[in-house]
Design goal:
The complex is a heterodimer of chains A (252) and B (504). Chain A is an alpha+beta fold and 252 residues long. Chain A contains nine helices and eight strands. In chain A, the strands form two sheets. In chain A, strands 5-4-3-8-7-6 form a six-stranded antiparallel β-sheet, sandwiched between helices. Chain A is elongated and about 70 Å long. The chains are: A alpha+beta (252), B alpha/beta (504). The structure holds adenosine-5'-triphosphate (ATP) and magnesium ion (MG).
Chain lengths: 252, 504
């Protein structure tokens, strides 16, 4: 285990000084307070400025804390933000594949639906927002398992919903490797008989997986006769995943 | 691969400008958006920079094309939808605006409107335009500009000034600007100036005289859907084939083509429009009569409208001015942190109250504050204000227009707020349906443009594209609804007359 990194400690000290000052500080002041050579202080402040944690409103003037720092806390993705960013693209997906669409986020020890678009056939349907999806038996769940390393996202028991539900951890691990390799997940009657789904990950700032978008429908609408997920469905889901991810990273 | 060709639409809204591309199914292919500055130079004043708005249009159109990997040649028509009643004056030689664009929420024309009423013109306004004299409409704003901005009256007399709502400003710029730009307005926008005769669909000389406005600065009134001209820049060669006020565009995008069909759009404000058929509907005490759309040479389709000035903008205020939430959607997270409003009500009469009360001198209030009330309750009150304002409009439509809504079609940014949509359904006691495209403003402009150039064959083809994407069913206890409605009513009483009691 390596010891503490001096430059990180010093960067933190610079931020504390700037945060405590209550006014913009000159480089010389920062260097003096921290008892650092001016060149060292300059390197620290410059790096922090480049990553957005320090601001220098008019170039060449004094320094303040940067907006990137407050954004860190602020930009944590909220399910309602995700729904808002996803809506246009989830709608288009539902229209193109003529099936229902779910957008979900990992929550606690499972994955929860945050947005639901009805199958566009105008039949009576009920919003599934808030529903919890099993991790090992849905395409959405598998995407979340395959893309997040969090301990919470490990199913404690592999509940058997149908004869097709994965039974062993080894089987599940094989499935997740496939998901990582191909970039999308599918589930064929593994949660409810006759229901299939295809899902891809949604990626937010820094490429972090924040959730999944999935198409859900009768097995014969999602899978071909050979049991392979239909190529057109996969293509539409993947393209939607890219559009939503783009909206998450650069809202406009 | 995106299926081509495509239809482009620009939605120049109050807070932002969007460009969207649509495919034949009426589905979103790409979307680019840019916010513009909101200027609040004095209480009651809200203005934009028309030049900035045009610059934003010039950015979002190429951005939408790039996102779709499309070229201008992939686009077969362009439609425009716009914030209504916002007033632009510009110099046709330089192409620059001559004053800030005064928006529809701005109340600076109040004295002009009061004088108009004092001079006995209220009946004329109502009978000719189907509107009521308020600061909401564009005509009195033009008069304010001519009176207050130095040199404008002279420029107008010298033919060096053009007036228009945002549709005119964009159409003129898109078709060449100083270099051959055409000066027209669509009839739905014209119907919001308080200068247009709702029967003849032409400017009314009596109203122009009453407001002392020169006819020469006004654009020519044209149908909502016809080829006005060809884009000179941005989408060179593409026919500019439709323009509608944003709320009429949403009515069209929701495919409310049959009399009695209604939609409510929840954006900056909220606007409930009911298709009223091809005969001009009788005036009612608290609703507006307006043009829904005019397709080419077809008979005009009218609409009855209940306008709510503040809906999403209250959420924005909660976010930006109070800093209570980092993003608008997170108001739902905050509101769900509590079970109810804690006895707190917010009446957002920031620019007075629009339909059905029409109280120009009302101002915003928060009532029911106790130590118990926290941020979560305030968030609830913000959302509930939109629900109750919708309720009042629907009650007026029932009582005055005799229309019972069987269900309400909703759209706009706030429809992604499920807590709000459930509340709307609860207080109206009807089902609320969101269609597969929430951006119905853009969609309506695209539909009208696509119809004009034959991309879609007829209205029935558009109707087949409408599908329910979500729905909410009422589940509120009727006794609770009655009690809360009564409390809202009392809250509104506290807002009334506030601006009339200023110390002079
Ligand atoms: N999830 C949400 N909950 C509540 N309010 C929201 C939510 N999402 C957006 N809003 C509000 O809705 C408005 C944005 O909606 P929309 O994009 O339809 O409006 P707009 O088209 O920009 O309005 P305009 O056309 O008047 O400019 C903003 O005022 C915002 O505060
Ligand atoms: Mg809008």
């Amino acid at each position: 285990m390596p010891g503490p990194l001096q430059s990180v400690e010093r960067a933190a000290a610079v931020l504390r000084v700037l945060g405590g000052a209550g006014r913009p500080l000159e480089l010389a002041e920062i260097a003096a307070v921290l008892d650092l050579p001016k060149t060292t202080a300059f390197g620290l402040v410059r790096t922090l400025r480049d990553v957005g944690f320090v601001d220098q409103p008019p170039p060449g003037s004094a320094y303040t804390l940067g907006s990137g720092l407050t954004d860190l806390d602020r930009l944590g993705l909220d399910p309602h933000d995700l729904r808002s960013h996803a809506t246009n693209w989830a709608d288009a997906l539902a229209a193109h594949v003529r099936l229902e669409v779910l957008v979900s986020m990992p929550q606690d020890d499972g994955v929860r639906v945050v947005h639901h678009v009805f199958r566009p056939d105008d039949t009576a349907q009920v919003l599934r927002v808030g529903e919890s999806l099993p991790l090992h038996a849905t395409a959405t769940g598998k995407v979340v398992l395959a893309t997040t390393a969090s301990r919470g996202a490990r199913p404690s028991v592999l509940e058997r919903f149908t004869t097709r539900t994965v039974r062993t951890r080894a089987e599940l691990e094989g499935e997740l490797q496939k998901v990582r390799r191909q970039g999308w997940a599918s589930a064929l009657g593994e949660h409810q008989p006759g229901v299939g789904s295809v899902a891809v990950a949604l990626r937010g700032l820094g490429g972090l997986a924040v959730g999944a978008v999935a198409v859900v429908g009768p097995v014969d609408k999602v899978f071909g006769p050979g049991g392979e997920a239909r190529a057109d469905v996969v293509r539409e889901v993947r393209s939607t995943g890219r559009s939503i991810s783009r909206a998450l990273v650069a809202p406009w | 691969m995106v299926s081509r060709p495509l239809i482009a639409a620009i939605d120049q809204g109050t807070t932002s400008t969007r460009c969207m591309l649509f495919d034949r199914q009426g589905q979103t292919v790409s979307l680019a958006q840019r916010e513009h500055r909101q200027e609040f130079p004095r209480p009651g004043w809200v203005q934009h920079d028309a030049d900035e708005i045009w610059r934003n249009v010039q950015r979002v159109v190429p951005a939408a094309l790039a996102q779709a990997g499309a070229a201008p040649t992939d686009v077969v028509a362009l439609g425009i939808a716009n914030q209504r009643e916002t007033t632009v004056v510009w110099d046709p030689r330089t192409g620059r605006s001559l004053a800030p664009a005064i928006t529809w929420q701005d109340t600076r024309s109040d004295e002009i409107v009061e004088t108009l009423v004092a001079d006995g013109h209220e009946t004329l306004v109502r009978e000719v335009t189907g509107l009521r004299p308020t600061t909401y409409f564009a005509g009195p704003r033009l008069r304010w500009l001519l009176d207050h901005v130095r040199g404008l009256r002279e420029k107008a007399d010298a033919g060096e000034l053009l007036f228009g709502t945002i549709d005119s400003w964009l159409t003129w710029n898109l078709t060449g600007g100083p270099d051959g730009g055409i000066h027209v307005t669509d009839v739905t926008n014209a119907s919001r100036t308080m200068l247009m005769d709702l029967d003849t669909l032409q400017w009314d000389d009596r109203l122009l005289a009453a407001m002392d406005l020169p006819r020469a600065v006004l654009p020519e009134i044209r149908p909502s859907a016809e080829v006005y001209g060809t884009c000179a820049s941005l989408l060179p060669g593409v026919p500019l084939a439709a323009a509608l006020g944003d709320q009429q565009a949403a009515l069209f995008g929701q495919t409310c083509f049959t009399a009695g069909e209604a939609k409510c759009t929840y954006g900056t404000g909220a606007f409930l429009l009911v298709n009223a058929g091809t005969k001009r509907p009788p005036s009612t005490p608290s609703l507006l009569t307006t043009v829904g759309y005019v397709l080419g040479d077809d008979a005009p389709v009218y609409a009855v409208e209940g306008s709510i000035a503040m809906a999403g903008s209250l959420v924005q205020w909660f976010r930006d001015s109070l800093g209570m939430i980092p993003t608008a959607p997170q108001i739902e997270t905050l509101a769900r942190s509590v079970d109810d409003n804690g006895g707190c009500y917010i009446v957002p009469a920031f620019s007075g109250l629009y339909a059905p009360r029409w109280k120009q001198d009302a101002r915003g209030v928060i009532v029911g504050l106790t130590s118990y009330v926290g941020r979560g309750h305030l968030a609830r009150a913000v959302l509930e204000a939109t629900g109750w304002q919708t309720y009042e409009v629907v009650e007026a439509i029932r009582a005055e227009a005799g229309i019972e809504l069987a269900a309400l079609r909703v759209d706009g940014g706030m429809t992604s707020n499920h807590l709000l949509m459930q509340f709307v359904s609860d207080v109206l006691d009807v089902g609320v349906d969101r269609p597969l495209v929430s951006e119905t403003v853009c969609l309506g402009a695209a539909y009208a443009a696509g119809l004009t150039v034959g991309y879609w064959s007829d209205l029935a083809a558009l109707q087949r594209n409408w599908h329910r994407a979500a729905s909410w069913q009422p589940s509120m206890d009727p006794a609770l609804r009655r009690r809360e409605a009564a409390r809202w009513d009392r809250a509104v009483e506290h807002a009334l007359g506030w601006a009339g009691h200023e110390d002079e």
